[in-house]
Amino acid sequence: MSVQKPRTLFDKIWDAHVVDTLPDGTALLYIDLHLTHEVTTPQAYDGLRAAGRRVRRPDATLAVVDHNIATDDSRRTGIVDPESRLQVETLEKNVAEFGVPYIPLLDDRQGIVHVIGPELGRSLPGMTIVCGDSHTSTHGAMGALAFGIGTSEVEHVLATQTLLQKPAKNMKVQVDGNLAFGCSGKDIVLAIIGKIGTAGGTGHVIEYAGDTIRALDMAGRMTVCNMTIEGGARAGMVAPDQTTFDYVAQTPNGPKGETLERALAWWKTLPSDPGAHFDRVVSLNAHEIAPQVTWGTSPEDVLPITGIIPNPEEAADEARRAQLRRMVEYMGLTPGQRLQELPVDVVFIGSCTNSRIEDIRAAAAIAKGRRVADGVRAMVVPGSGLVKKQAEREGLDRILREAGFEWREAGCSMCLGMNPDKLTPGQRSASTSNRNFEGRQGPGGRTHLLSPAMAAAAAVAGHLADVRDYQPKEALS
Amino acid sequence: MKAFTTLTGIAAPLPMANVDTDKIIPARFLKSISRAGFGKHLFANLRFREDGSENPDFVLNQEPYRRAEILIAYENFGCGSSREHAPWALLDFGIRCVIAPDFADIFNNNCYKNGVLPVRLPREVCELLVEDAKLGGNARVTVDLERQVVIRPNGEEHSFPVDALRKRLLLNGLDDIGQTLQHGTQIDSYEAKQKSAQPWLAPA
């Protein structure tokens, strides 16, 4: 009997899901869980109807609305924007026609698709998970292979429960050492993107390893995996361990009892084998990571909060100089300016990157006993109805409201400028979301990405601020 | 899907790296429930001013590039969101081929599903093509998928890589769901095996 070659976490999940291999090496990959939302599905259902096809596994599909919806009380009286309303109504009509399970807007379990999957216990270790959304990489934190797909692929999965895929290359990002004071998963992933660049992971699946990653809770791991796509890799993953298993055990829909025991037996075999081959390895020292903030219009343009705006003329080549000039101009900056001098108009704490209970606790810890600075609009948007309820049980909503933050309903909100929560031209935001592209949070909006604690510090300071100067005044009760 | 064989047309120069899909089509225009009509919002934030008027500085507002069928750009084209609305918007505008040093993975896949060909050529070749494209309507570029070459207006040829399966589907305009459904028996048996081996995958 031959000894099997050592395999990575990615290799193992991949191998377990290959239904068939085409002559050119393309695999027909089985998909265990298909998460869907209103924006990237209507054309896929149209395609099914036109071809007379059905949804093969409604039970392995879950639909929710998150992108288009308002995050204030107006959601209770219906969606105002006629196009947004039509898109949501179209999803409701489609899920009814094709028998797909759906979490409606006013259900407590409603929320951002990448928050609710893990939270409900639907996203599990060892699974293949897809969604018509690039931030599907989030679910890799469960020890799953999870990646975003386009609408044609959504249709393909609805019809066949499979995808045609070529295997990705393996990349390992190793982070070791104690995370420095004031830092979180967000600072780790921003530092990684700063190091590898926004295309650094293209063609690869990234496995995050090392004792810093091991020490992160599930929310921190989800933040890291979430922004993997900002480093160019479609999927990021963390090997499942006791932290993962404990998390799964407390979810409402995760396996229980004997079924859980059987699952655990397999999940424990998933971590990469010693000696498994990685095509690329990148290492970081956690204690060298300071709280991070992006200054430009690509997530790779990131600096420690103590940094200064770079001078475009000092860049190596003309293409980069032109790119940096454009960024400095768009962002309304001056080379040499200190990041901490930049006044903010809006603070947004939310999105599939940072809207979990741990993120809200981190923001509330900084906000407690302080006030949002005059002239700053600060909003906290929980990732799901369940997160919101949990925060309210812990009294976090009261702390945040007393400090002057808006406490809102679950949704994608100001991450992407698709619903009523948007920046107006020229407004500067400190945002816990994932993309600082031109116009991402609204046309002309200027986005600085940072962690929830850093966002809360910016809200009370009125400008980008070093969270290490704004430590909790009192413990959260 | 329309087949892609050979295309000779006007190429628009967009010499920028990291052209993200929010730039190609901002999220506020993703509310349509059809695949058609996104072309008018292609590059909306660059093409139009705040008051909705055209920005004359943007290449696609200039002649002859309003009729461009090819776009030349730099590294990491199509990064960011998975929105297939990005290739839909390009196609609806009339662009059937993007040439760049490399593409973000999801955008790359989405192009192939819609008969848009993403062509990878080295940066220095893209820079030459940008210069060619600046010559406008007299400098047409040819993209020959069968032979896997881009032909510059001066006749110089540059070959590009393309996956064999994708090439076949694109040359024939085939959608791949039909092809996958031919593996129905294997999918059935995979599911049967999984059901007994991994009972936790059935939702509670």
UniProtKB/TrEMBL annotation, chain A:
The keyword Cytoplasm does not apply. It is an enzyme of class 4 (lyase). Keywords: 4Fe-4S, Amino-acid biosynthesis, Branched-chain amino acid biosynthesis, Iron, Iron-sulfur, Leucine biosynthesis, Lyase, Metal-binding. Catalyzes the isomerization between 2-isopropylmalate and 3-isopropylmalate, via the formation of 2-isopropylmaleate. Pathway: Amino-acid biosynthesis; L-leucine biosynthesis; L-leucine from 3-methyl-2-oxobutanoate: step 2/4. Residues 423-450 are annotated as: Disordered. It comes from the Bacteria. Residues 11-462 form the Aconitase/3-isopropylmalate dehydratase large subunit alpha/beta/alpha domain. [4Fe-4S] cluster binds at C352, C412, C415. Its cofactor is [4Fe-4S] cluster. Heterodimer of LeuC and LeuD. Belongs to the aconitase/IPM isomerase family. LeuC type 1 subfamily. GO terms for molecular function: 3-isopropylmalate dehydratase activity. This is 3-isopropylmalate dehydratase large subunit.
From TrEMBL, chain B:
It catalyses: (2R,3S)-3-isopropylmalate = (2S)-2-isopropylmalate. It comes from the Bacteria. Residues 1-123 form the Aconitase A/isopropylmalate dehydratase small subunit swivel domain. Gene3D superfamilies: Aconitase, domain 4. Its EC number is 4.2.1.33. The keyword NADP does not apply. SUPFAM superfamilies: LeuD/IlvD-like. InterPro entries: 3-IsopropMal_deHydase_ssu, Aconitase/3IPM_dehydase_swvl, AconitaseA/IPMdHydase_ssu_swvl, IPMI_Swivel, LeuD. Pathway: Amino-acid biosynthesis; L-leucine biosynthesis; L-leucine from 3-methyl-2-oxobutanoate: step 2/4. GO terms for molecular function: 3-isopropylmalate dehydratase activity. CDD domains: IPMI_Swivel. Keywords: Amino-acid biosynthesis, Branched-chain amino acid biosynthesis, Leucine biosynthesis, Lyase. The keyword Iron does not apply. It is an enzyme of class 4 (lyase). Belongs to the LeuD family. LeuD type 1 subfamily. Catalyzes the isomerization between 2-isopropylmalate and 3-isopropylmalate, via the formation of 2-isopropylmaleate. Heterodimer of LeuC and LeuD. NCBIfam families: leuD, PRK01641.1. HAMAP family: LeuD_type1. This is 3-isopropylmalate dehydratase small subunit. It comes from Plastoroseomonas hellenica. The lineage of its organism: Bacteria, Pseudomonadati, Pseudomonadota, Alphaproteobacteria, Acetobacterales. The gene is leuD.
